[in-house]
């Protein structure tokens, strides 16, 4: 068990290291002087701050110092939670800007990812080897999974928002409201949450349903299924075993899909101007706010790594074989 | 298990027989035909369409902005009077190029890493595996965001290159596992005994034995590249020159096509992407059924 | 008579037409008999074994009957056959190594399997049978992955015979094992019969030498048909069918150095079962074939319990 987690943590540690290094290196590969190009673009909107910005960023990059020291400083700043100052909303610290957006992204992603996984697995397992259902679930699943996330988001926003007028199509809550814990605000928040959630949920759903269907068919062809059939066990028992075994690769699949799911959430947020990390990234790109972009990048990497680790733990809990193997009970 | 094992006297022409059987099922597999059919039609539209269209520049501003589909503008026009159909046709082209380039680069890397790790094993495998896992865990889009934003590489080939460089890990893992199981087979051992080089063994003995698998993998990488590229375009990191389906969606979103009710602006590009990727996925299922007798419907 | 198979025909549906894997096969088995079923791959022995318990999707029952303890088995009807499976007919599959659900503890899986067949698990009985095959009782709390190959094989043997079936089909159970384990498995199978856990047994194998040690009777099949069936000793010492003679001759004898006596395979290969030739199917490879072999030879009882399908026998 220790070895298993040790290995995983090593991979995650290395990944984090690589991500930080990329984050440090890329600006230094940028053609020209990053500081002036950044300040120049930002300066248009806020002339007074230009000088402050220039000194601040020159110090921050520390171009006068040797490279290794720049690199060490970068790590030191990171561990103090210092991601620099945002240009877009100067002079708010990047970490503060990000912290304001993270709850929205998590609130959107966690329910949609978990629900689509559960419902998708269920639908796929149910449809497998039942011709009529299979012929519906499969095509629908493929269309959903082939859709770009933002397109389904646009379709939903247009159909249910603009045309039908049932749901709002922009923002995390109405502009007329101030964030508070009142019933009115929470209801408004949920109202704005429905469409982005639905859009993320639906696209991801297709992939899980197809994956589960294929896994179940594979399991139903397996030796243990054939043995049970030969001993006259009812389909119910065989399917139950097959489902249980097919869920395991789907858990691994969830870990593999995390990157895609994050990307989907980002573009969906952009469509709905939902105030999460996706909209932040868009703002950062439009305003050439590289510190904000880099900070967001670090947050996403960290989030994905943590999620991966949680999935690893779940996998060990669910798959008895990993535990049996780890206990060293191999006969 | 299968009828082939139960029917003797087939071993002489077994190889040719399997191939003939695959072809037999291929031309009768609805999923395969419909999938490749749709993908091929869109491909034709993308590459033959520009030759027929009179518009040279799909981004040229026109005189009739915001007009719905008509005989003159089949898919209507944008806020700037650009012809949506021309953009769609050129966008299809870009999309296929990104898919082929990105998917191709990813497939080459995946094969290099997967074959080497699976065939060599040992320390090489350990290191490559670690490397694969790192690239696998890192959220690709986020890395692409940083690189694209800073370096400002905004051409279609550059975009495809970066997508290819980041989307190979799952395929490499799959190839590694397959190679691992082929490595111990008799014909590979024979080739090794007869002194063939590693490269030769992989190219002549291992790769051909999983060619169908490699082809299906390429199709998935192709579709994946298209989807990633469209996301990048949509965020605003697409090519600065020309047009792509993702860029069309971005423009439509940026200029509030949805709020203005200009459905003809945002429907075609998304439908185009969905059709290409979906058709390829469905064709892939068909291929799987052709190569994998157990999945055939009886 | 425990088992009576009459004129059984089972075909495989393929693109090119029906593969006549089992073409008019008849034989009987006594109570307590172990029947060794041998032949080259593709002779129909596996098809016969499968037909008696569960046909796969491509197999079609084209005619003939199977009677077990006086009741007809509905072998072509997957659903009606369920009643007989496990209780009356059971199987030790070729794939014993992977026959158990990898994510269930073995004891729990057995309990669930029995429960699904409406039988309560008799833990004491199960444990006594584990003792018999020298498996520690704690394997019931293990996952299959924790058992060695030989242990899995024995575990599957115990599970398959738990309901004391009348007929047990052991399908190539020894082919994946090393020689010493093969002996142990064979011994255990005989022990099961002697203890009354199974009434009779069909031991499907391509290993004629091993078969002769455990079987009472040996049946050799060729190209979907019965070639010869005789008591094991007679089959080894005095075979009548030219095919069987060649098979027996090709067995290495203990104590004979191969340099002294060349191992002889049988030249040629069996005919295609898609469209088998008329007459004796072994004719093309037969060293003694004559004109009469253009007619199909009937199965004749040349001496008590010794059946041969050959004009020259």
UniProtKB/TrEMBL annotation, chain A:
Transmembrane domains' residue ranges: 9-26, 108-128, 149-170, 190-210, 246-272, 292-318
Source organism of the structure: Planomonospora parontospora
Protein name according to UniProt: Peptide ABC transporter permease
Principal location class: membrane
Pfam family, one: BPD_transp_1
GO annotation, cellular component aspect: plasma membrane
Protein topology in the membrane: Multi-pass membrane protein
Entries under Gene3D superfamilies matching the protein: MetI-like
Entry-linked InterPro entries: MetI-like (IPR000515), MetI-like_sf (IPR035906)
GO biological process: transmembrane transport
Keywords carried by this UniProt record: Membrane, Transmembrane, Transmembrane helix, Transport
Top-level taxon of the source organism: Bacteria
PROSITE patterns per the UniProt record, alphabetical: ABC_TM1
Subcellular location field: Cell membrane; Membrane
Signal sequence region: none
TrEMBL record, chain B:
The UniProt record lists the keyword Chaperone: no
Chain segments annotated as transmembrane: 32-53, 96-119, 131-151, 157-175, 213-232, 263-287
Cellular location(s): Cell membrane
Highest taxon above the source species: Bacteria
GO terms for MF: dipeptide transmembrane transporter activity
Keywords assigned: Cell membrane, Membrane, Transmembrane, Transmembrane helix, Transport
Family of this protein: Belongs to the binding-protein-dependent transport system permease family.
Identification of the protein by name: Peptide ABC transporter permease
Organism: Planomonospora parontospora
Taxonomic path: Bacteria, Bacillati, Actinomycetota, Actinomycetes, Streptosporangiales
Automatic annotation (TrEMBL), chain C:
Protein's UniProt keywords contain ATP-binding: yes
Domain named ABC transporter: residues: 3-248
Top-level taxon in the UniProt lineage: Bacteria
Keyword Cell division: no
GO molecular function (one): ATP hydrolysis activity
GO biological process per UniProt: peptide transport
Keywords for this protein: ATP-binding, Nucleotide-binding, Transport
PANTHER family linked to this entry: MALTOSE ABC TRANSPORTER, ATP-BINDING PROTEIN, OLIGOPEPTIDE/DIPEPTIDE ABC TRANSPORTER, ATPASE SUBUNIT
Protein name per the record: Dipeptide/oligopeptide/nickel ABC transporter ATP-binding protein
Organism of provenance: Planomonospora parontospora
């Amino acid at each position: 068990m220790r070895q298993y987690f040790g290995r995983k943590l090593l991979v995650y540690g290395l990944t984090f290291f690589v991500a930080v290094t990329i984050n440090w290196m890329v600006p230094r590969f940028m053609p020209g002087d990053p500081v002036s190009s950044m300040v120049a673009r930002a300066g248009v909107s806020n002339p007074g701050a230009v000088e402050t910005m220039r000194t601040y960023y020159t110090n921050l990059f520390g171009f006068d110092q040797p490279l290794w020291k720049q690199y060490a400083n970068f790590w030191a700043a990171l561990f103090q939670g210092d991601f620099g100052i945002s240009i877009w909303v100067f002079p708010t610290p990047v970490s503060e800007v990000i912290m304001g957006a993270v709850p929205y992204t998590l609130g959107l992603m966690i329910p949609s990812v978990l629900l689509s996984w559960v419902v998708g697995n269920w639908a796929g397992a149910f449809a497998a080897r039942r011709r009529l259902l299979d012929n519906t679930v499969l095509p629908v699943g493929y269309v959903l999974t082939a859709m770009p996330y933002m397109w389904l988001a646009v379709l939903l926003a247009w159909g249910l928002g603009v045309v039908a007028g049932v749901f709002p199509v922009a923002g995390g809550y109405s502009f007329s409201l101030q964030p508070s814990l009142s019933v009115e605000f929470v209801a408004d928040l949920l109202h704005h949450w429905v469409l982005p959630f639905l859009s993320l949920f639906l696209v991801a759903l297709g992939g899980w349903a197809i994956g589960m269907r294929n896994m179940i068919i594979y399991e139903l062809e397996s030796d243990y299924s054939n043995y049970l059939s030969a001993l006259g066990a009812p389909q119910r028992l065989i399917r139950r075993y097959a489902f249980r075994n097919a869920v395991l690769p789907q858990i691994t699949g969830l870990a593999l899909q995390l990157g895609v799911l994050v990307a989907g959430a980002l573009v969906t947020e952009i469509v709905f101007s939902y105030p999460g990390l996706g909209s932040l990234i868009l703002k950062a790109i439009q305003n050439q706010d590289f510190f904000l972009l880099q900070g967001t990048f670090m947050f996403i990497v960290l989030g994905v790594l943590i999620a991966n680790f949680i999935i690893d733990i779940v996998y060990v809990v669910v798959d008895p074989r990993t535990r049996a193997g780890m206990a060293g009970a191999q006969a | 298990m299968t009828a082939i094992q139960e029917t003797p006297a087939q071993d002489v022409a077994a190889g040719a027989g399997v191939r003939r059987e695959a072809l037999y099922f291929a031309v009768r597999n609805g999923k395969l035909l419909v999938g490749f059919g749709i993908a091929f039609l869109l491909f034709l539209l993308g590459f033959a369409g520009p030759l027929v269209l009179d518009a040279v520049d799909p981004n040229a501003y026109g005189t009739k902005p915001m007009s719905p589909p008509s005989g003159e503008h089949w898919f209507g026009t944008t806020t700037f009077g650009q012809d949506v159909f021309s953009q769609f046709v050129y966008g299809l082209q870009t999309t296929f190029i990104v898919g082929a380039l990105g998917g191709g680069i990813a497939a080459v890397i995946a094969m290099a890493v997967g074959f080497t790790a699976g065939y060599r094993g040992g320390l090489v495998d350990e290191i490559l595996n670690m490397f694969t896992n790192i690239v696998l865990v890192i959220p690709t889009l986020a890395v692409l965001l940083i690189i694209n934003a800073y370096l400002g590489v905004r051409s279609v080939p550059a975009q495809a290159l970066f997508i290819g460089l980041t989307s190979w890990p799952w395929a490499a893992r799959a190839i590694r596992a397959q190679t691992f199981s082929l490595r111990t087979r008799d014909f590979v051992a024979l080739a090794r005994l007869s002194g063939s080089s590693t490269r030769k063994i992989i190219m002549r003995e291992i790769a051909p034995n999983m060619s169908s698998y490699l082809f299906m993998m390429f199709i998935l990488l192709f579709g994946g590249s298209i989807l990633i590229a469209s996301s990048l375009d949509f965020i605003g990191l697409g090519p600065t020159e020309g047009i792509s389906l993702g860029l069309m969606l971005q423009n439509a979103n940026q200029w509030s096509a949805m709020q203005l009710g200009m459905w003809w602006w945002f429907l075609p590009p998304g439908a185009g992407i969905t059709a290409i990727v979906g058709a390829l996925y469905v064709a892939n299922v068909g291929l799987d059924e052709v190569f994998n007798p157990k999945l055939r419907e009886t | 008579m425990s088992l009576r198979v009459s004129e059984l025909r089972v075909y495989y549906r393929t693109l090119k037409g029906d593969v006549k894997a089992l073409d008019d096969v008849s034989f009987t088995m006594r109570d307590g008999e172990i029947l060794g079923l041998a032949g080259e791959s593709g002779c129909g022995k596996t098809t016969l074994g499968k037909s008696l318990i569960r046909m796969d999707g491509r197999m079609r029952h084209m005619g003939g009957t199977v009677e077990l303890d006086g009741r007809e088995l509905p072998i072509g009807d997957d659903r009606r056959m369920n009643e007989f499976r496990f209780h009356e007919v059971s199987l030790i599959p070729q794939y014993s190594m992977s026959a158990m659900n990898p994510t269930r503890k073995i004891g729990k899986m057995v309990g669930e399997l029995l429960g699904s067949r409406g039988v309560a698990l008799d833990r004491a009985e199960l444990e006594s049978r584990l003792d018999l095959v020298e498996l520690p009782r704690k394997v019931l709390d293990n996952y299959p992955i924790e058992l060695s190959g030989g242990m899995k094989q024995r575990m599957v043997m115990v599970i398959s015979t738990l309901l004391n079936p009348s007929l047990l089909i052991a399908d190539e159970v020894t082919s994946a094992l090393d020689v010493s384990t093969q002996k142990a498995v064979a011994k255990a199978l005989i022990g099961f019969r002697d203890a009354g856990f199974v009434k009779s047994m069909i031991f499907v194998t391509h290993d004629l030498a091993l078969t002769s040690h455990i079987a009472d009777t040996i049946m050799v099949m060729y190209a979907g048909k019965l070639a010869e069936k005789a008591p094991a000793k007679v089959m080894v010492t005095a075979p009548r069918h030219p095919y069987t003679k060649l098979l027996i001759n090709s067995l290495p004898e203990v104590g004979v150095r191969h340099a002294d006596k060349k191992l002889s395979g049988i030249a040629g290969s069996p005919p295609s079962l898609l469209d088998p030739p008329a007459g004796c199917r072994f004719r093309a490879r037969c060293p003694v074939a004559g004109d009469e072999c253009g007619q199909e030879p009937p199965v004749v009882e040349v001496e008590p319990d010794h059946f041969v399908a050959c004009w020259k026998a």
